[in-house]
Every structure is written in structure tokens, then in C-alpha cells.
Write a structure and sequence with these properties.
heterodimer; A: six-stranded mixed sheet; four-stranded antiparallel sheet; B: mainly alpha
Chain lengths: 245, 284
């Protein structure tokens, strides 16, 4: 495997302002991602993991520290880091499944229309939605919408996929199935993904490397390999021994 | 706890008589909205005819058949189509001018904070002001003619459209905004491909409200004064026929106003709605 990190986050502190407070979301967080990593950021709500992901996406600037993708510093959103959000409304409702993907490819200037359509159909087939290619998003179920969002992100063939609790709004059965499918897609294309979740089993299942974060403000607690990881121990690291009966 | 055996059943529909059965012709007909409304209209026309015949006073209330007679006679003589055409052309001019100004104001409001404040203040001030109340002033400024009418039409259209469009832009989902940024859209591309379609339900509402205001205002303005050079619109047609005590013609004029209103609402706006926000599931 490559020994040069694809993404390096060094001592990143993130702050944002609400109407009454200045909130520190994460404090001096560092980690490195290598090519084909399935890197999971795991932590309780309020640990700033979503804010951290948005900073990697380029939506928020760190007040301290650096985020580097390859040799370039991340300063703004861009199609080399494609987001999959938790919300079902990330698909544009005025476009069909196929048009949503074609839109992403053409708007970013990645491909011209005929090639974009070809690639869109290829990735739609990958997530088993070929017969729904010309359906509008509101006619799909939640799981199908997330599959389209994943297909759209993968069709961009970005350097890194950013997934912000993409399965959190799904029912348990669909979620398990989606995790399975994601791993299968990874087997096929070995993409690099940064995956945020608050579910310990999901982190162990989806990731190969897990970053544990504590809350208020978010700080790195541990960085583990998920092979052989023990859910009870992770729980203890996150919430302390006393909490864990 | 009570020990119970596990139970398994055979699933069978052998004795079920209906799984799916076509509806009868009458049930299908009654489900059709257009059919139900046509029946209602026919009943209303019949009631009108009966009451007017019983009243027997064509100066106050002509019969339905007399109104239809006057309607077709006015169409044949060309007076009604000419008046309607004139009204429509005025309306389109005023509507287009109102939309253009609304687009400018909204662009300014979207781009800058002071622009947003300006739009909000102006809308709060002028939206409650009925356009027709500006007509006397318009007559002083622009004289008796098309200029005054277009001025009040702009006022009727502008605020409804600008306010709804701006509110629509503001309520565009943050996720869509982030998606737009993620794929590196330019500023203009962002407005055209994310903001406008995302705000389309609101924009459409603005267009409909603006149209309704403009239509009412225009007919009212035409009733107040005939437009220069002897050619007036539908409002003037109604006013003139009343002066000549041609009451059936007055009813025919009113009917035309209603028909145009219905046509625009049910044909034009309904079609746009069905092809856009309904198909997209943004409005049920």
C-alpha cells in the first residue's frame, strides 16, 4: 500500500459562531488517510465529527491547523472531495436519477454529456437501480435515494468520498444491507472513503481504521484498526468505564 | 409464563372472490373531476335560465340564453374579440415589465444585505396598497392612456413576484446549496441550476398571485376610463354597454372576463405546475 498519505489533517481546531456563543467543535485533531482507506470517525453526538467532515469538504475553514489533500491545502469545496449527506433531500428533486448524476459530472466540467450519460448508467447499474434511472427521486424509498447519492458520488471518481452518517436515517434492515453493498462496491473499486458515524457496530463493520473522538470539544481519543476491534472496549474508551454496566 | 406451541399456516386465496376487479362505467365517470364540474355548470346554467325567465326583466337580469346570444353576436361583430385582444396585450406588457423589475430587485436582494432590506421594506410598504388606488396619481403622471395602465399593472405584479421569489430563494434547502458548491458550480450556474428550480414552488405562487392581481387591476382600470384613441379593453366594453342599457352584453363581457381567468389558471398555470413542481414531488 501507498506510504504517502492522501489526506492529512494536522492539529485542526474548528470554531463556529451561534447567536450567543462561540463554539469550539474540535480541538487539535490530527489523523492521516491513505489511499483505499475506509477511515471511520466515530464519536458521540457533539464531538464535532460532522463539522470536521465539512472542513475536509472545504465548507468551513479551520481556525488552527492544516488540512491537506495530496500536496494542496483544502480551502474551498471541490469535486475532488464528493460528499454523501445523511439527508434524503441531497438529490435534486427536479432531476431524474440519471439526470442527477449527469448534472454532477457536467456541472463540475468532468465530462461532456454523452460520456457523462454513459458513466451515469454504469454507476446506476452498480447500485442496482437501472430500472429506476428515469424516475424522479420522490418516487424512491429512502434506501434507494441513498444508493443514488452514493452512485452520484462514485461516478465523480473523486480522490476521496466523504460520507456523513449516510445510513443514519434508514431503518435497521436497510442499513445493514447498505453497509454490505458499500463494502462490495469497495471491493470492486477500492475507493478511499472518510466515513462519519455515531454507531459503534457500523464503524467496526464499515471501516478498516477507526478514529475515536470525545465530545465538547471533539478531541482524538484513539485510532484503532477495526479488524479484531471490540465493541465493549470502544464503548469504554468513548464513555468511560463507569458508564458501561 | 405459559408454554405455547408454534403455529404455521398455509397461505391460500382459493376462496377469496375479489383480489382486483374493474370499476363500473358509472364509478369511473364519477371519479372524473371534469365530468362532475361540467354537470355542476349545466345545473347552474339551468337555474339561471329558470330564474331569469320567471323574473322576466331583461334590464336587470337577462336569461342565460340571451347572454349567450349576446356573447356570440359580440364575437361575430368583432367587438368582443377586439376588446379582449386589447386587454390581453396590455396585460402582457404590464406583466412582462413587472417581472423584469422583480428580477432586478430580487437579484439585488439576493446579492447584498442592504438589497434584502430594501426589498423587504418596499414590499411591506407597497404590497398592501391596492394598485387601483395609484390610478389617479398615474393619470397625473402619465396622462390618459397606456402608460398609466402599465404603471398600475407593474405595481400589481412586482411585489407579489419579488417577495415570493426572494422568500423561495431563502428557503432553498441547505443540502442542495452544499451539493451545488460540491460540484463546483459557478455563481450564475448556481442561481440557474440550484436556486431557481429549488425555489420554483414559491416562484410559481408569486407568478399566479401577480397574474390574479394584474387581471383584476386591469379590468378595474379600464372601467374607470376608456383608453385613448377610442379602443378600449374588456372593462371599457362592459362600461359602455351598461351606458347603452345593453345588459345582456354586459353579462357577455363579464363572462369573457371569467373565461379568461379560468383559462389562464386552469390551462396555463396548471400545465406548468403539472410539468414541474408536481412531477418533481415538491408539491402534491
Amino acid at each position: 500500500m501507498d506510504t504517502v498519505p492522501l489526506l492529512s489533517v494536522e492539529g485542526v481546531t474548528l470554531r463556529y459562531r451561534t447567536k450567543e456563543h462561540l463554539v469550539t467543535a474540535t480541538y487539535r485533531v490530527s489523523f492521516k488517510l491513505y489511499r483505499s482507506d475506509r477511515f471511520v470517525v466515530l464519536g458521540p453526538s457533539g464531538c464535532g465529527k460532522s463539522t470536521l467532515l465539512k472542513a475536509v469538504g472545504g465548507y468551513i475553514q479551520p481556525t488552527e491547523g492544516r488540512i491537506q489533500l495530496g500536496n494542496a491545502e483544502v480551502t474551498s469545496p471541490g469535486p475532488d472531495r464528493v460528499f454523501v449527506f445523511q439527508e434524503f433531500d441531497q438529490l435534486l428533486p427536479w432531476k431524474t436519477v440519471k439526470e442527477n448524476i449527469v448534472f454532477a459530472l457536467t456541472a463540475s466540467g468532468k465530462l461532456r454529456r454523452p460520456q457523462a450519460e454513459e458513466r451515469a448508467m454504469h454507476y446506476i447499474a452498480k447500485v442496482n437501480l437501472t430500472e429506476f434511472a428515469s424516475s424522479y427521486p420522490h418516487t424512491l424509498s429512502g434506501g434507494m435515494k441513498q444508493r443514488v447519492a452514493i452512485a452520484r458520488a462514485m461516478a465523480m471518481e473523486p480522490q476521496i468520498l466523504l460520507m456523513d452518517e449516510p445510513f443514519a436515517a434508514l431503518d435497521a434492515l436497510t442499513r445493514a444491507k447498505m453497509q454490505e453493498e458499500l463494502l462490495q462496491l469497495w471491493e470492486e473499486t477500492k475507493f478511499t472513503v472518510l466515513f462519519v458515524t455515531h454507531s459503534i457496530p457500523e464503524a467496526i463493520r464499515v471501516g478498516n481504521r477507526i478514529l475515536l473522538m470525545s465530545a465538547h470539544p471533539g478531541q482524538v481519543r484513539a485510532e484503532l484498526n477495526s479488524a479484531g476491534a471490540d465493541a465493549a472496549r470502544i464503548h469504554e474508551l468513548l464513555f468511560g468505564a463507569a458508564d458501561h454496566a | 409464563m405459559l408454554e405455547r406451541p408454534e403455529v404455521f399456516y398455509e397461505v391460500s386465496t382459493a376462496r377469496l372472490d375479489v383480489v382486483e376487479k374493474p370499476l363500473s362505467a358509472w364509478e369511473k365517470l364519477y371519479d372524473n373531476g371534469a365530468f362532475r364540474k361540467t354537470v355542476l355548470l349545466l345545473m347552474l346554467a339551468a337555474a339561471w335560465e329558470l330564474y331569469a325567465t320567471w323574473l322576466n326583466n331583461p334590464l336587470l337580469f337577462p336569461t342565460f340564453s340571451a347572454t349567450m346570444g349576446a356573447f356570440f353576436a359580440s364575437i361575430a361583430s368583432g367587438a368582443l374579440p377586439q376588446a379582449a385582444l386589447y386587454t390581453i396585450s396590455m396585460l402582457l406588457k404590464g406583466y412582462a415589465a413587472g417581472l423584469a423589475i422583480a428580477a432586478l430587485l430580487t437579484a439585488f436582494a439576493t446579492g447584498t444585505r442592504i438589497g434584502a432590506d430594501l426589498l423587504e421594506t418596499l414590499t411591506a410598504m407597497f404590497n398592501p396598497l391596492p394598485s387601483i388606488a395609484l390610478l389617479p396619481l398615474a393619470l397625473v403622471w402619465f396622462g390618459l392612456g397606456a402608460g398609466s395602465v402599465i404603471f398600475v399593472l407593474i405595481h400589481a405584479v412586482l411585489w407579489a413576484v419579488a417577495l415570493n421569489t426572494f422568500a423561495g430563494f431563502r428557503s432553498v434547502s441547505p443540502t442542495w446549496r452544499m451539493v451545488g458548491q460540491n460540484y463546483g458550480l459557478s455563481r450564475a450556474g448556481y442561481i440557474a441550476r440550484i436556486l431557481i428550480p429549488g425555489a420554483f414552488p414559491s416562484i410559481l405562487t408569486g407568478l399566479k398571485v401577480g397574474w390574479a392581481f394584474a387581471w383584476r387591476t386591469l379590468i378595474a382600470a379600464e372601467l374607470v376610463f376608456g383608453v385613448s384613441s377610442g379602443s378600449g379593453g374588456l372593462g371599457w366594453f362592459i362600461f359602455e354597454r351598461k351606458n347603452q342599457l345593453l345588459i345582456a352584453d354586459v353579462f357577455a363581457g363579464l363572462l369573457t372576463v371569467i373565461l379568461f381567468g379560468l383559462a389562464v389558471e386552469n390551462l396555463i398555470f396548471k400545465t406548468i405546475e403539472n410539468r414541474t413542481v408536481r412531477r418533481w414531488g415538491m408539491q402534491s
